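Input (structure):
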């Protein structure tokens, strides 16, 4: 028998969506900056990019071979080799000096500009180059279509074209296209700086000797890593003890950031120094969000040396803090960076065990999504231990099964929604046939 604790349901709980909306209303897209292209991956373009010239800037060869006039070799076959006089060798990076007229050809390398007069390139393999002694004559063994093996001027980008528009996210291909137009910098919306501070007397920093009663601060590192994945610049302070002085001192180091993310000390009922300090120095809300894990959440603005800085207070449990950051913090980063709000992909999967939802909150259960043995289905198996203290479950799983608010049970065999994590490649592994 599973006890139902629905009576604990609080009418004053905020939905995940309402909490997110309240949070997002406090953020704006940050100002534009000009970044070196090598530092721009993941940023959003703030100004249209117009090409100053065509790419490629001239017709060039797609093969190592011979540039010639196609009409000269219309009859060429293995049996009827047609000989042309070689007048020049054109390497990539050089301009041709000689014009091709009937009966002539130039030896040309891939990427080299096509000489005037030539209208096709025959690759080495289709000539007698390897078997002939003559360096002056080249025997052509096949015919060519007009413009065969010629890359046309401007076939990639034409001069004056708006090739990348404001709002485009910089991916590896986008940064390559920007580079191909000769730009070494790009205008983007600035990456947010995120100040990260874990609180708790029980914490030690990794690298310190373990002491009785203490645990290592993992939250600062999971959250900092998540902010990096989303394109922000995190700054970690070593954790604060639960004292007013220490907390205020550490927070004061974050005068320059765009958002502060703290962990622990925000549960509703409890007395906590963290809440005291946040209340005293800012305009904070302490919410109960209708979700499990990660019900307690703090959000507001805190005064640091005259600046009002948004502060997101995550719960202390390592899993809760990651999931709360995913649900709230990362959207704030996206908005500051000028990104469209895109939710994590949700896929359908067949549940392999019952999931009980004891208190009617929206439950996010860590599951392993994979193909069934027969490969005919996508299945989701919940991890045995769903404790919000078990951080290993976050890398052993690849998604969160969603049990809607008010639903007591998801049954073995039922089709469910699973939100896939954004920081691994599990989705493609599942969807790809190979
Ligand atoms: P609290 O929110 O302070 O009640 O903390 C809830 C749980 O999370 C406790 O077991 C804490 O020890 C743990 N915890 C708090 N902060 C961290 C942290 N930075 N890293 C790992 N665990 C933490
Ligand atoms: Mg604590």
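Output (sequence):
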């Amino acid at each position: 028998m599973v006890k139902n604790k629905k009576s604990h349901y609080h009418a004053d709980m905020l939905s995940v969506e309402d909490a997110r909306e309240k949070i997002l209303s406090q953020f704006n897209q940050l100002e534009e900056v000009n970044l070196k292209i090598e530092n721009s991956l993941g940023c959003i373009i703030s100004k249209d990019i117009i090409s100053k010239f065509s790419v490629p800037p001239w017709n060039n060869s797609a093969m190592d071979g011979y540039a010639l006039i196609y009409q000269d070799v219309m009859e060429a076959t293995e049996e009827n080799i047609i000989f042309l006089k070689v007048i020049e060798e054109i390497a990539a990076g050089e301009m041709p000096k000689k014009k091709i007229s009937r009966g002539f050809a130039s030896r040309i390398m891939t990427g080299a500009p096509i000489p005037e007069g030539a209208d096709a390139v025959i690759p080495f393999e289709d000539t007698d180059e390897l078997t002939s002694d003559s360096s002056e004559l080249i025997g052509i063994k096949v015919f060519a279509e007009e413009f065969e093996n010629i890359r046309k001027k401007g076939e990639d980008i034409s001069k004056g074209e708006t090739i990348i528009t404001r709002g485009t996210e910089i991916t590896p291909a986008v940064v390559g296209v920007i580079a191909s137009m000769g730009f070494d910098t790009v205008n983007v919306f600035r990456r947010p700086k995120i100040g990260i501070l874990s609180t708790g007397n029980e914490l030690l920093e990794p690298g310190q000797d373990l002491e009785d009663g203490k645990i290592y601060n993992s939250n600062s590192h999971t959250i900092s890593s998540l902010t990096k994945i989303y394109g922000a610049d995190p700054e970690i302070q070593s954790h604060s003890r639960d004292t007013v002085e220490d907390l205020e001192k550490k927070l004061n180091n974050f005068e320059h950031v765009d958002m502060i993310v703290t962990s622990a000390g925000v549960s509703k009922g409890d007395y906590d120094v963290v809440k005291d300090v946040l209340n005293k120095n800012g305009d904070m809300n302490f919410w109960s969000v209708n979700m499990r894990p990660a019900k307690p959440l703090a959000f507001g603005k805190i005064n640091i040396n005259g600046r009002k800085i948004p502060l997101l207070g995550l719960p202390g449990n390592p899993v809760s803090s990651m999931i709360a950051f995913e649900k709230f913090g990362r959207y704030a980063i996206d908005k500051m960076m000028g990104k469209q709000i895109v939710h994590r992909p949700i896929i359908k999967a067949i549940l392999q065990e019952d999931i009980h939802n004891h208190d009617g909150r929206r439950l996010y259960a860590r599951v392993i999504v994979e193909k069934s043995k027969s490969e005919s289905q996508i299945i989701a198996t919940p991890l045995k231990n769903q404790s919000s203290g078990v951080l290993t479950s976050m890398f052993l799983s690849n998604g969160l099964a969603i049990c809607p608010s008010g639903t007591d049970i998801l049954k073995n065999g039922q089709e469910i929604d699973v939100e896939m994590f954004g920081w691994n490649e599990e989705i493609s592994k599942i969807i790809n046939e190979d």
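Notes: The chain is about 20% helix and 30% strand. The chain has four domains: 2-30+191-337, 35-55+156-189, 60-151, 346-433.
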